[in-house]
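Input.
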Amino acid sequence: MSSATRPYLLDFYPLEDEKYTRIAPFFIHLRAGRLTTTKCERDGSVHWPPRVACPNCHGTQLAWVDLPRSGRLYAFSALYLGLPLGMEQDAGAVVGLVELGDTHIKIFSRITGRKYEEIHIGDAVELETFDIDDGRVFYRFKFKV
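Output.
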């Protein structure tokens, strides 16, 4: 089932166009292979996920900054039940928290490239972008070879 035929509320990929979201630059950068987020120009805090206002000082002067494309697996699990519509065939999918480089940021993501039984905390992973059938782009992490 393509996301174009799913009701919007059941579509787990965000709308990416600037007419729908104020974080459209994130998706533009992602399409170019860059993982980015926002940094407050007032207090210097870096946020994940990207924001339109700083959660610390509530300022709206935010700049886009690059994040590391690689990191280490901090925690992980496998999904066998309760998968979103359209992903039923992916039972056993691995998801996890990726600690990016030497930042404080941990990103929850799909993890690909190994079976659940072959995965260990601390394994190195790297960003992988992928196209969705309807023209959107999203990300996941895969194990480094």
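Residues 15-67 form one domain.
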